[in-house]
Amino acid sequence: MKPSTCASTTSTAARRSTSSGPNATPRPPSPSSAGRTRDFESPLRDFLSYCRVECGFAPATLSAYATDLRDLWRWLEARGVGGFAALSLDLIAGHLRELDGRGLAISSIARHVATIRVFCRFMESVGTVARNPAELLTQPAGWQTLPGVLSPTQMLVLLAAPKPTDALYLRDRALLELLYAGGLRASEVASLDCDRLHLNLGVARVLGKGSRERIVPIGKPALDASRAYLSGLRPALGRSDRPTNRLLLSRSGGPITRIVVWQVVTRQAHRAGLHHVHPHTLRHSFATHLLAGGADLRVVQELLGHSNIKTTQIYTHVDAGRLKQVIQKYHPRG
What we know:
CATH class of the largest domain: Mainly Alpha
CATH architecture of the largest domain: Orthogonal Bundle
Number of strands: 3
CATH topology of the largest domain: hpI Integrase, Chain A
Number of domains: 2
Radius of gyration: 22 Å
Number of helices: 15
Strand order of the largest sheet: 1-2-3
CATH superfamily of the largest domain: Intergrase catalytic core
């Protein structure tokens, strides 16, 4: 019997880590030579292979699972635990307390919980453990923190931060505009192909988490910035010896990575005098500004590519002013 966890766990675990290839199963961790034992390595390899082959999870999801379970492996090994089969609820709780003591964000700890839950269900299904040790471990839905957002004025300042004198001005401007116009993730804008951005139609076909495709409308400022980049800079960046269909290229002519996206956003935010801004801040701002303008929550869910509307509902807490206006307008005692 295989664990029925494929579709339900993709969104919570895909994050943070990078992968060595689109079809590669991330290698199990090697915290130390003593820790590379079959009792740790075999369950982890089987789990990652199952997620890749049976569930078809994205490389980022597989790498994220490996990263979290590497953390658990090290922690267990340091306490003399011989393998994952000896995992218990008390040990899991101790590991989560240690993560909290390290100062990890609440959302990061919640993602560790999601990884451990699905891994333990897998081990039970294949007989590695007689009973799921994480059976009573609930996903802490209330552990989310409100995302940071920029005001519309701050967003305009950020979008205007790239200077025409910058060598990669046209690329960086197009990158920022696309992130905000479509609410794209860093990995999504980095992997966007030229033939997936339809300038005449004003839409982009975005490949999101779990290789799910969605159609995202792109506004005129982002389309204009993309046209300027495609005609004015991309031909100069491209290399005939290693052609690529990716839209955004690096100085060396190769596709940019999500790390480069992060670096561009933080650098331009610093130039604009804005702090604690990263690519997801633009995505948060995109959703919040739409809801503030009266967009339906279901529409925003589709645009963001959220499989569960609960993920989108966090933005209703961010725009308290919008909620107040609704009460004042519709409640008889508002």
